[in-house]
Amino acid sequence: AQSVTQLDSHVSVSEGTPVLLRCNYSSSYSPSLFWYVQHPNKGLQLLLKYTSAATLVKGINGFEAEFKKSETSFHLTKPSAHMSDAAEYFCVVNRRDYKLSFGAGTTVTVRA
Amino acid sequence: DVKVTQSSRYLVKRTGEKVFLECVQDMDHENMFWYRQDPGLGLRLIYFSYDVKMKEKGDIPEGYSVSREKKERFSLILESASTNQTSMYLCASRTPYNEQFFGPGTRLTVL
Questions:
Q1: Extended beta strands in chain B, E state
Q2: Chain A interface test: which of B41, B54, B100 (most A C-beta within 10 Å)
Q3: What is the rounded (10 degree) CA torsion for B34, B38, B41, B43?
Q4: Phi-psi category of residue A47: left, alpha or beta, with phi > 0 → left and psi -120 to 50 → alpha
Q5: What is the SS3 assignment for B84?
Q6: Beta pairing class for B87-94 and B106-110
Q7: Backbone angles phi and psi of B85, in degrees to 5
Q8: CB atoms A44 and B90 under 8 Å
Q9: What is the sign of the dihedral through the CA atoms of A73, B90, A98 and B80?
């Protein structure tokens, strides 16, 4: 079965410093992977997706993620955090039946 | 841009009431989904619909039913609301490229 594990439930960074959100996946075939962001009291917004083209995927708002098959990881990074990055982030893998499996989420806090 | 709207942002109901949550998408997508979101559990799939009048149970369908009479509208029904159905409910529609677009959510409280 396809699943994802987000290794940190909460990440706190200072404004202007790098952000790293870690995600490991489990899949019996080459997966599609996604990162979604949810700002307070809002729905989920697609940040980026990996679909077996380039292993380094660039998304919106300066985020990027690298697919590493050998490590079964899909970590999300941003070089310089902004206050508006405070949100909850979900790592997601597609299943064979086109449904999605969501990680438990990582809450990001940005300190001024 | 895809737009997915949900009928209510906040809803308070009593135990045993019948509850309808409505979702509308404007991009002619065939596939639509209902999830519930609870802290520490991420999103869990309740039901999905792959076309008009076609539906399939997700991972946690117990206590819920759905209706899809028109392509743009997908309704989630709680036949007899219970306190353990207090949650955030999110609707989504899917593009042919397997991207899901979400509505803003309905926060349901069952007293």
A1: 4-6, 10-13, 19-25, 31-38, 42-51, 54-57, 64-70, 73-78, 87-94, 100-102, 106-110
A2: B100
A3: 20
A4: alpha
A5: helix
A6: antiparallel
A7: -100, 5
A8: yes
A9: positive
For residue A62, report the phi and psi dihedrals to the nearest 5 degrees.
80, 5
Half-sphere exposure at residue B41, Cβ-oriented, CA atoms within 13 angstroms: 12
Dist CA A10 CA A1 (whole Å)? 26
Q: Along the 111 residues of chain B, how does pLDDT read in single tens digits?
A: 668 999 999 999 999 999 999 999 999 999 999 999 998 888 999 999 999 989 999 999 999 999 999 999 999 999 999 999 999 999 999 988 888 999 999 999 999
Take residue B49 and report the two structure tokens written for it.
Answer: 């619909």
Which site among B10, B43, B101, B107 would you substitute to test the A interface, given the most A Cβ atoms closer than 10 Å to its Cβ? B43
The upper half-sphere exposure of residue B106, i.e. CA atoms within 13 Å in the direction of its Cβ, equals: 26
> In chain A, what's the furthest Cα-to-Cα distance?
43
Q: Are B4 and B106 in contact (CB under 8 A)?
A: no
The radius of gyration of chain A's CA atoms, rounded to the nearest angstrom, is: 13
Matching residue, tokens 């809450």: A107
